[in-house]
Design a protein that fits this description.
With about 300 residues, the protein is α/β, with parallel strands linked by helices. It has helices at about 30-35, 65-80, 115-130, 145-160, 170-175, 175-180, 195-205, 255-275, 285-295, and strands at about 25, 45-50, 85-90, 135-140, 165. Strand 4, helix 4 (about 145-160) and strand 5 form a beta-alpha-beta unit. The longest helix is centred in the C-terminal third of the chain and has 23 residues, at about 255-275. The structure holds zinc ion.
Length: about 300
């Protein structure tokens, strides 16, 4: 069995039935025999997916990917502790997403929304063809074209395989629940769009050694990227020469801790909905319609 606390530990020949509380399995370390031995109804796959993209001069390009994976792992541990009969399986982190708008910086790797759709569908259908039904998509990248790929792949997997699948974070991101729940800070956090206060706080909490100290001298910069005048423009074309939107200098590790665990809570709640066959989180209708209007790029 694969124990994730010690990533280096070699796999033994135990089956998933030997799973102890607080453990989860790592897909890439399992043989097809071990995968085949999993209970179809009691296994939930977690797929972290987010692009590598510039996050200002102070944060790693893997900020979204690291956060998606770390929060997924915390959520899987909590589910493992609370539900003895459920097995959570971590799929490898997929470093892919649509982020054309900041591709004029080195470090950004953007793929088309069609590719995002293809990847999600390929993972989902590869599992569903063998009877697996349950999957949670973990992404921290909230660009609508990226979500378009994810949501249309999930729709197709529901239609073709009746999969129980959801992506829990974007509904919370787009319906205002972060602002409603977060500690009161005395400034408008809704303008912290990219590599600003929220993400810098997250990295300051989770990976302080990856945060470049220059963060504390960065000036606040704001842009309404949803404004029609900026449509189709890149970050540099709208004057974001350092690649961030918000106030990184205000970063606070305590807020980072709150934000991290709020994300974990969101994943845990969605996983419980899935286990108990309750309705799964979905994007607000108006965001869904806006997303539909976007071109496949
Ligand atoms: Zn990000």
């Amino acid at each position: 069995m694969v124990r994730t606390k010690d990533d280096q530990k070699p796999m033994t020949k135990k089956t998933a039935k030997d799973k102890k509380n607080n453990d989860f399995l790592e897909f890439k370390k399992m043989s097809w025999k071990h995968i085949d031995a999993l209970d179809r109804d009691k296994t939930i796959f977690f797929l972290p997916i987010s692009p590598l993209e510039e996050h200002g001069p102070h944060l790693p390009v893997g900020t979204d990917l690291l956060t998606a994976k770390d929060t997924a792992i915390e959520a899987m541990k909590r589910i493992g502790t609370q539900y003895e009969d459920i097995t959570c399986v971590l799929l490898p982190s997929v470093p892919v997403g649509f982020c054309k708008f900041n591709s004029d910086f080195p470090g950004t790797v953007s793929v088309s929304s069609k590719v995002v759709k293809e990847i999600i569908y390929s993972f989902g259908s590869a599992l569903a063809r063998h009877g697996f039904q349950n999957m949670i998509i973990c992404t921290y990248h909230m660009a609508l074209s990226h979500l378009k790929g994810i949501y249309s792949a999930m729709d197709k997997l529901r239609q073709r395989y009746k999969m129980n699948i959801c992506e829990p974070w974007s509904p919370v991101f787009y319906d205002g629940r972060i602002t409603e729940n977060e500690p009161k800070l005395g400034f408008d956090t809704s303008k912290e769009v990219h590599a600003g206060f929220r993400e810098t706080s997250l990295i300051k909490y989770q990976y302080p050694y990856l945060l470049d100290p220059i963060y504390s001298s960065l000036q606040s910069i704001y842009r309404d990227v949803s404004s029609p005048k900026f449509v189709g423009k890149t970050f540099k074309e709208i004057g974001l020469s350092d690649g961030y939107i918000g106030s990184p200098a205000k970063a606070d590790a305590d807020y980072g801790r709150w934000f991290f665990h709020f994300t974990v809570d969101t994943y845990v709640a969605a996983t419980k909905d899935l286990i108990h066959k309750r309705p799964l989180p979905d994007l607000p209708k108006k965001v869904r319609s806006r997303m539909k209007l976007l071109f496949w790029e």
